[in-house]
Structures are given as structure tokens and as C-alpha cells.
Design a protein that fits this description.
The protein is built from two helices and no strands. By secondary structure, the chain is an all-alpha fold.
Length: 91
């Protein structure tokens, strides 16, 4: 049987319950905008070996486009002009 002599709790102070916080979306870190790389108006100068290779490749493509029917020296001369123009060099 249950005890009937239980004393009521007196003098106990109830602490107020904190209000439930309103849900907040997780903070998403926004990346800083990427800085634009400044491209120079003229590409950096290629080394002589690099220029030689560029001319060689350009001459080959010119010859291939023409079916290898012309003179190699003429393809080379035209390729030099193209590469010099692309690199922004004066000859």
C-alpha cells in the first residue's frame, strides 16, 4: 500500500526553463572571390630553343595543310612570321 504520510514538497524553487532557441541554419562559409589573374598584353618571350620548336611545329602544320607539295624553306619562312607575330616580337 502507498504511504499516506508523504509530506508535500515546500520551499522548492523551480528554475525557469530556457526557451527553445529558434532553429538557425548552419553557417555556410562563403569563399572569397577569386582574384583575377592579370594577363599581360604580350606573352612572355620564349627562349630561342622554344621559338625554334614553335617554328618547327608551325612549319609542319603549314606543310601538312598544303599536302607537303611546297618547298620546306617557304613553310619555314611563313612559320617564322606566324610565330613572331604570336609572340609579339619584331624581326
Amino acid at each position: 500500500m502507498a504511504a499516506k504520510n508523504k509530506k508535500p514538497v515546500t520551499g522548492a524553487t523551480l528554475k525557469p526553463v530556457a526557451k527553445a532557441a529558434t532553429p538557425v541554419a548552419p553557417v555556410t562559409k562563403i569563399p572569397a572571390p577569386a582574384t583575377k589573374a592579370v594577363t599581360p598584353a604580350v606573352q612572355p618571350t620564349a627562349s630561342p630553343a622554344q621559338r625554334q620548336k614553335l617554328i618547327e611545329v608551325e612549319a609542319y602544320y603549314l606543310a601538312e595543310k598544303n599536302g607537303f607539295k611546297g618547298e620546306p624553306a617557304s613553310y619555314w619562312a611563313e612559320a617564322e612570321k606566324i610565330v613572331i607575330a604570336k609572340l609579339g616580337l619584331k624581326k
